[in-house]
Amino acid sequence: MRLDHVRRLSGPNVYLARPVAIARLDLQGLTGHETTDHPGFAERLVDALPGLGTHHCSAGRPGGLLAAMARGTYFGHVTEHVTLELSGLIGREVFFGRTVRAGGPSEYDVILECPRDEPSGSAVVEMLIALALRTVTGALAGTAPDLSADLARIRAAHEGERLGVSTSALARAARRRDVPVRRVGALNLLRLGYGRHRRTVWAAMTDGTSAIGMEVAGDKRLAHRVLADAGVPVPEGRVAASPAEALAVLREIGGPVVVKPLAGHQGEGVHIELTEPAEVVAAFASAAGDEGEVLVESYIPGRDYRVLVVGGRVVAAAELAAACVTGDGSATVAALVARVNADPARGEGHDRPLTRLVLGPTELGLLARQGHGPASVPADGERVRLRRNANLSTGGTSRDVTDETHPEVAEMCVRAAATVGMDVCGIDLRLPDIGSPPPADRGAAGILEVNAAPGLRMHLAPHEGAGRDVAGDIIDLMYPAGTPSRVPIVSVTGTNGKTTTVRMIAHMLELDGRRTGMTSTEGVFVGGRLVHLSDASGPRSAEMVLGDRSVDAAVLETARGGIVRRGLGYDRADVAVVTNVTRDHLGMDDTETVDDLAEIKALVAEEVRPGGHLVLNAADPATARLAERPLVRERAPELRYFAPSADAPVLVDHLRDGGVGYYAEHGWLTEAHGDRRTRVLPVEDIAGSFGGHAAHVVADALAAVAAVRALGVPVDVVARALRTFDPHTLNPGRGCVYQVGENPVLVDYAHNPAAVAAVGELVARRWRGGGVAAVTLPGDRSDELVDETARALGATFGRVVVYEDEDLRGRRSGEMTRLIVQGLREARPDVRVHPAGDLKGAVAAALDIAAPGEPVLLLYEKLQPVLELLETLGAEPSVSESPAPAEAVTCSEAGGRSSSTVTESSASTTTPSSQ
């Protein structure tokens, strides 16, 4: 077998609401082979990985995989389970897997769940799959491979990139409170919330943490002075810039003393209970570092405590014990250390609740002073210290004493945090007993340090006592009860009309006073301004908008490609819109049928918040059926259907049941709720609809109205937005007319059968007949789809100029022209086809062919070259279209008020349906 590639879907996807990796396997020589074709394979595999015996597989019970292998199953499926088992063995707890056919007969996609906050660039999943392949092929070859070395290597990689204990707890606490969480790269930096409610937290440091407070806390000399000036008890001490000065401080304040770096952390370089000059000199050399200075303080007897202050209150307290081992009369110190380190709660650095013990120079020196070494055997019950300072980072342990903390001790810690200016901080203090008031005697109690970005391990999972939800306390500080963490999200998908619909929605929300972030195939826009130029209809652009702190609402074009290749860029939407599902992109990414397309786009409908809103096209059966999907029903959204007219059966039934719907009736865009009707505005007043002739634009407007009304945008604002939705400025490249000499040039992005048919119908109705078309089509569509699109074009246009885009998308030069011409001639034998080399030649040829005043339809792939060409031709945007011809349905013909007399107030008139 061979691993071809791995891709990640970092957001909700068609397989799972959590991240997955998709590995493309080529079974090669094992194609068509089943496990039963290789006697003894299953037994050898389970010998190597006994945990496989507990895998449920599709049976839904332990032993399901064993039963599947006994019946006979393919090796892609086996590789899936082996990868999941290996993942569990390194502590990477994931449970979902699936294997599906892909590409050729030997190719399979293995879909594997990934930890939610695993970095997108992680190589761990590839390493696991590669090891799984070696394991399976080894078992096939008759060997039971030794996996220990490989697992140790992969485990180290996994541990090195996973979130730290504190940051992981913060992520979990935020998700429990329904706050969106996204890890930034491979850092312990979390982005919380969306839009203007976005916050960031780095370990236990929030974006509200004072920069000055951080500086004070990080400078032990300055923190000592600030606390002392505020009357907070601190040890007596001085800064020493040389060993001689350190000895002078020892003589001045008397021993024992503590020597520590001015800017140290995690207990590194801290030396305590020093009484001898030689000890102080040695400690100075260890602690001075590059600074050349140390802090020499009086040693305060008593117990070590860490108190966590969050938002001006004590939320947890722990008593700390220094690293030590207890003898049993037979084991050596080294063996006792190994025994302690076997606890799965201990890990390297901060990746576990506790840190492993080590026998380094500091530990060996302290052992020697106690008469021990690594090979010595302590007596039964003898407590042997490995460190003097009590710190989790050097192997210490903690005992929860939150409930024991005396109010006066708590008040002292709160004062210290406020004095330094920290919203979240850890207070290190020593005193006889945290359960009693601090002694008033000088030197009997004191605050040793104020720690910025304090570790939470000792409070989350203390060695003794109950754990505290301190991560939740920090999240509650950032998002107090009742504080939103999200902005409204509208996600729009479908085959046609996505870009126009999102642009309409964004315009409506902007007029409603909401600064809106919008993604579309033309780029990312914030507040109506382009901030990132690209095809921005995927998850990365969604993340860009949702990470913008100026955004009040987000409107996201959510295209098929982004869903398939990376998943969604958000966890759920307030409003999901599906415009339609028709033939396009077939043959791409293993999508063969319209049902396959519907399955992909259904994800947008399914990932709506519980009780949110789902806008569906009632006139499109594939779209309307999405409401019946189990995951959609589970979210119980309010359904809002739209259709060109009120007689769509799905819409009729929906309204009869008291639902909400949108349609055009008597020349008006109409909102219906049960038997109530609200006229929004005359259809002919929709800017860019060509007086109502552009039925597809009217449909887009209906979808947009349904979406914003779900968000509470007033009807008068909706009407004003649709009247002012100028295509040239707000919807460039979609239904825009330019006057070039005597000819109107209609520029549109239609590129599939449904879109081309809709534009053809517009041209026929608006200009009473055909015109000349200059066209190109995307090269990455299947031959069948290109043929069908060309046939749709030929239904309207008898004269067509065909050109190829600069980006052939994998096609050979001239191939697309041949396919388009072939489809045109099969649909319309009398068609006159004029091949052109490029865009410029195509436009010139079309204008030359067209009679004066005759329209030219220009279909394109990239808009910017079109705009540049039109500018060189002196093209002028057509400011307005003439009134609708007789065949168009207008509100005045239908007995309604003409657009010239409609006022803002009349646009929101509500009438019973009987009128």
UniProtKB/TrEMBL annotation:
EC number, UniProt record: 6.3.2.29, 6.3.2.30
Keywords: ATP-binding, Ligase, Nucleotide-binding
Keyword ATP-binding: yes
PROSITE patterns per the UniProt record, alphabetical: ATP_GRASP, FOLYLPOLYGLU_SYNT_1
Spans annotated as Disordered: 876-915
Domain ATP-grasp: residue ranges: 224-479
InterPro entries assigned to the protein according to its UniProt record, in alphabetical order: ATP-grasp (IPR011761), ATP-grasp_RimK-type (IPR013651), Cya_phycin_syn (IPR011810), Cyanophycin_syn_N (IPR044019), Folylpolyglutamate_synth_CS (IPR018109), Mur-like_cat_sf (IPR036565), Mur_ligase_C (IPR004101), Mur_ligase_C_dom_sf (IPR036615)
Top enzyme category: ligase
Amino acid composition bias (Low complexity), ranges on this chain: 898-915
Pfam families per UniProt: Cyanophycin_syn, Mur_ligase_C, Mur_ligase_M, RimK
Subunit structure: Homodimer.
Family the entry assigns: In the C-terminal section; belongs to the MurCDEF family.
Primary role: Catalyzes the ATP-dependent polymerization of arginine and aspartate to multi-L-arginyl-poly-L-aspartic acid (cyanophycin; a water-insoluble reserve polymer).
UniProt protein name: Cyanophycin synthetase
The organism of origin for this protein: Actinomadura syzygii
